[in-house]
């Protein structure tokens, strides 16, 4: 396999280049945290809802709970899909991604410092163009940070200890046409031989690595190259998250 | 009952004044019609999906089909609601509003001119502040018009006859503190003694009148005043729809 | 539009004439209230079940709760429909009508006087020939009155205050062949250009007005005529309810 | 065990005496067969719907299909039960009885003579006082006979051969207070040590025998006595079915 | 009908001969009772789970609860069936058999002696060749006995009184080719004119008798012969249960 | 982190040592492929069902289809879980694992060589002690191989080309007490800081890599060590698969 990281792709990007990423905080008026995250044409609305109390099985533990639900609007994709509410059941892919987002966020939260409060992250895909789960994790972290700050400002979080122990971001990488590339849009995703989603903390630790051979199996050397790209991409996303959170949070005009 | 239509309301509006209404066409990249409609803080994404063919029971009729699905994002409201997909069933209110939107749009479409094509309108409430169903109908009409134009431009609609026979818009009216008012935000809606949703065509015919006494029953004279306000409000919405559709449809920047 | 209220209809009635209405109280042996209501061939069994206690969200409020469930037997209609229990979900129309009946009855009950008791109204359509929802409301009110009287006789309702603040009845009106008519059977209902259900209290206040243009939109003058007919019809139903309740309640032979 | 078949029971009947049984044909206006069957206070509406065609798996076989669905109205019993449509699933008991009724009717029908037609029997319990499944089978046979006659009169059943090869009826028997008794009402049913439902054809053959020890196991001699009673009771029901079907079928007044 | 009990059947057995029956205790490592029961090629895994406490409706009664759930693996049969978990609902047959197993076991347990403990019997069919419900009952009794012994050894069952008042076993009988036979494999079951499942206690009392005419109705004399065979077969199963329980319970190698 | 690969674990194994693995082919009589796979106390029944034809969306493609369903018996675990069929919905974990097994097997099958046939793999966990999904993949491959051989022997697979392009096996690895270990039983799994499932082909290519930080994030060096262990373990499983398939397939005694 020849991997030439400098040749441009269909959309003109280099192999190790992210799409344009936008993080718009305060996208809703009422939610404790709400972020519209865009990875190119992929747009996900990430909303954090903070409530006092925890699910029954966690009561009295002194620990909080963070969970996530992912969903796609029926026409977020090129052709319309049936609503899962109408079908009466959640599909396997939806379940799988919701669980992934929840685990990723729980990796950077100190549930004892959160106290017996619950934060639910709703990640609704308004438009899908590849990488919806990684955009969701990246945006959800920012919404979570805003909800935690809200809880602290309200006094709902009692401890002075930091609730967030690190930040977390995610990116997709894959092998397309024999070449490892970063942040795949839909057109690359459907043609990828290998597809991998990687979740990394701000300090560079791995939270999740999920690689799948879509066509032929991949080799150890390819896996190594993909991990290099993912580390590079999540580091860049970490910077964008920091920059977004450094801005004052204003109401939407 | 004293109705003083000139005293301002909590948000400063006169009794017969709409909230600020915005209709943003082309909000999504792929859909045949997509409109973000805003009635003040209420924001509904209305998306029209055009597909060749009709449901089985309509095949061979030469007639098209238009239907609608309404849903709320879990945190569109002040406190988070459970997802209907997770609960595994659609609630009664959701069903009711989906049916209302579908009937309203079918009132202004000539299904024979549409031919054996289907247009599905997805109306997803991103943020709710009262009047979500009336905003949905008003925005969905614009998305429908764009999808019809798309079908004609593509040649998917064969006939040269007009497919849309009229336009349609909707508004809520109600009696709040003994006074009939137009276009109720949430804070008025929960305190309304009577709540009414009215769907009116561009040429002034009634499509739907749904009035409910929340507290004490209402009198014929009150009903008349509410209908007057609704006619006034929908006429203004009709103008805004025309203005929006008069603009060229551009891709979102 | 020419409206000639004196010409007979297919079944020989004048435009402003109800079908034969029968209210048979005590149709079941055990229920606290049970009424077989007939509007011509439409037959609905309305059963009121009185139980001590209220749903969890209402506990400690001192207030009672009244709710309703509507359903159709599978062969109540001309052709058999699948059971909703077998399909595993309640349809939108069923939900909508159940909610309408519940709201209508709650408009005439003083939940504080009822105390923390629950009355559930089951309205099961045994045979459908148009107007099932309006028959259901009209019959359910009588069953409700019997259940309230039962609660008072048993001492389960503690207060001496009246629990029912008014009576309530409902009727359908519509425009058929250009003419406004009262109380539509199925054959008129399917041909109606406009269909309206109106719920009115015994003292003449409106509880619900639900009008739908099935074909072309309706005009304000038509709406006014329909409301006149509905007021006339519900006044007549109110008399029949009073007459039925004036009889002593006897066990069925 | 002393079994004294002559001492009267709580309701005054002898051990081998049926409750008053009524079979009212033509209880609905539209159905091809409809019978209100009453075993004392137990009232079941049995409705036969005849349609041309058979389920997919039977197409082209030249054979018809007969099936049944049993259900109870929520307040047919002393205390209200939740609707299975609202719960979203059919309970085990409902399934079991629906299957029993279907099997019992199929035992007396010649599906080849029926031709590729389907008859669905809906047995809805309006009021339950024990023996609802046996009343349902007994009434459903009469509704089935009317639907078959309708099919023959309409020419929908092509063959001249008899479609019904026999009649079928059912009764409950049980051991109450150590004594075998026939046709148990609810008050006996809940106290029975052994409960048995027996389905027998008009010519005396057994179709189903379902006996259950509710408390202590039963002995062979007791089983024999119960079978004797069941044979006696079903023979009497067969006579009543014949008498009912001998009457001309008239529209309900 | 000529019944010749000595002629061999397709598998060489006499009419009154059981298939080879094996009861393997301790088939799982963790369950309080677990038995692999085999009736010829039919293999059912019966697992008893003992837990302290009872369902809410039984709390404070001082009585325990025993219940059962039956299911078939998708490829236990000759052709694969869809999973009930995937279909989202339990079929009628599954419900019916689960209820039968539960009733059968409750007939031999003294719930007061059990105390407020629950034992759930899971009967999963690994391979089906006729008689799965009777094998399940026969095996489940042995698993139940082991779970009761476990509860007594652990001190979770407080009383010294016997918890099991008797043993229970079940067998199928039927009329095949005009001849009554015992313990039908699939190939006989599908051809049986009459099919009967009989549940009998160790001391010879009847718990359940469920006979169904699959083709033509059966006569009283045939019923008597089938009951004779069932008594004979269950007596033999009772011996096998005793022998199995007389062995020491060892961990699986 | 100190990783000492030679110190024994709780069950006496070295860090790089598999549990005892057993692959019993032909465990069922009728299925085209059936394997009981055991990884220590973990026991999964893997059954391959071969049927002619493919799902509708694949018809006419000339290509076959392989899919998988995973499930756990309710008492396969230490404490009993509710059945998913009773709950009426499949959980997220079940969905996720079913999809993983299906993808893993499809990586080694040439669907064109298979022709328009479907093979469904049912993997039912009889007893769970960690690593159920990896055992399922490893066993399912062997069952798949038997089903393919059956299809070729029957002539149902027309082409002479090899249908299986490689073999596939899977193993879990994880970091427990700071040490990377191979093939985790339940007791290690619940205490693992990092948990990874790796699916590898017989020729050493990666099909899936799924690593999750349960506690603190893991470093690149740890990830490398885990991948080394997984490659070693799957190579050993590949040998065991080959040995099992080299044996003649015999009916179970």
UniProtKB/TrEMBL annotation, chains A, B, C, D, E, F:
It catalyses: tRNA(n+1) + phosphate = tRNA(n) + a ribonucleoside 5'-diphosphate. PROSITE patterns: RIBONUCLEASE_PH. This is Ribonuclease PH. Gene3D superfamilies: GHMP Kinase, N-terminal domain. Its EC number is 2.7.7.56. Phosphate binds at residues 93, 131-133. Homohexameric ring arranged as a trimer of dimers. The keyword GTP-binding does not apply. It comes from the Bacteria. Keywords: Nucleotidyltransferase, RNA-binding, rRNA processing, Transferase, tRNA processing, tRNA-binding. InterPro entries: ExoRNase_PH_dom1 (IPR001247), ExoRNase_PH_dom2 (IPR015847), ExoRNase_PH_dom2_sf (IPR036345), PNPase/RNase_PH_dom_sf (IPR027408), Ribosomal_Su5_D2-typ_SF (IPR020568), RNase_PH (IPR050080), RNase_PH_bac-type (IPR002381), RNase_PH_CS (IPR018336). Belongs to the RNase PH family. GO terms for molecular function: tRNA nucleotidyltransferase activity. Residues 17-147, 167-230 form the Exoribonuclease phosphorolytic domain. It comes from Georgenia faecalis. The gene is rph. Phosphorolytic 3'-5' exoribonuclease that plays an important role in tRNA 3'-end maturation. Removes nucleotide residues following the 3'-CCA terminus of tRNAs; can also add nucleotides to the ends of RNA molecules by using nucleoside diphosphates as substrates, but this may not be physiologically important. Probably plays a role in initiation of 16S rRNA degradation (leading to ribosome degradation) during starvation.
């Amino acid at each position: 396999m020849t991997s030439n990281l400098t040749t441009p792709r269909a959309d003109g990007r280099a192999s190790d280049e992210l799409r344009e990423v936008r993080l718009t905080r305060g996208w809703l008026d009422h939610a404790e945290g709400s972020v519209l995250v865009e990875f190119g044409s992929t747009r996900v609305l990430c909303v954090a809802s903070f409530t006092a109390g925890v699910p029954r099985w966690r009561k009295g533990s002194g620990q909080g709970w963070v969970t996530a639900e992912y969903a796609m609007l029926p026409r977020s994709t090129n052709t319309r899909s049936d609503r899962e509410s109408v079908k009466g059941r959640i599909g396997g892919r939806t379940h799988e991604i919701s669980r992934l987002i929840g685990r990723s966020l729980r990796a950077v939260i100190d549930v004892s410092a959160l106290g017996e409060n619950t934060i639910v992250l709703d990640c609704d895909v308004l438009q899908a163009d590849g990488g919806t789960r990684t955009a969701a994790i990246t945006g959800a972290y920012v919404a979570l940070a805003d909800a935690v700050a809200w809880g602290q400002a309200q006094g709902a979080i009692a401890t002075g200890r930091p609730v967030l122990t690190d930040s977390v971001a995610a990116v997709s990488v894959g092998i397309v046409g024999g070449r490892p590339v970063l942040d795949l849009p839909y057109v690359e995703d459907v043609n990828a031989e290998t597809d991998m989603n990687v979740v990394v903390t701000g300090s560079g630790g791995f939270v999740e690595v999920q690689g799948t051979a879509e066509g032929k199996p991949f080799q150890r050397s390819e896996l190594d190259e993909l991990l290099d790209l993912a580390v590079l991409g999540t580091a860049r996303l970490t910077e964008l998250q920091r920059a977004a959170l450094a801005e004052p949070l204003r109401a939407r005009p």
